[in-house]
What we know:
- The protein has strands at residues 3-7, 10-13, 18-25, 31-39, 46-52, 57-59, 67-71, 77-82, 91-99, 106-109, 113-118.
- By secondary structure, it is an all-beta fold.
- The chain is globular, with a radius of gyration of 14 Å.
- The model has no long low-confidence stretch (mean pLDDT 95).
Amino acid sequence: QVQLVESGGGLVQAGGSLRLSCAASGSISSIKTMGWYRQAPGRQRELVATVTDGGSTNYADSVKGRFTISRGNAKNTVYLQMNSLKPEDTAVYYCNVRERRIGPDMLYWGQGTQVTVSS
């Protein structure tokens, strides 16, 4: 069974930084992408950033230039370095893994980690 364990959330003042980590355990045959999504109260879950197995990255416009996604040396880990945080970045952040399969891709989600940015 696949599990995603996130860490690194917390409370920070505007302008500060946080680094989120996610480690995937269990049997995943082929990771297509790893990424981060977030959901603020009363809003839909939205993409923050993704990274492919080839190293290509994609960011939401709202975080470009401030956030950096990266894969660890152990390819089942992913990080999100968040700098210049703003109060509007406050949300629960979820790690996501997309597994490549012969049929439809399989999606896995972490339990979420709270990020709160105070003004």
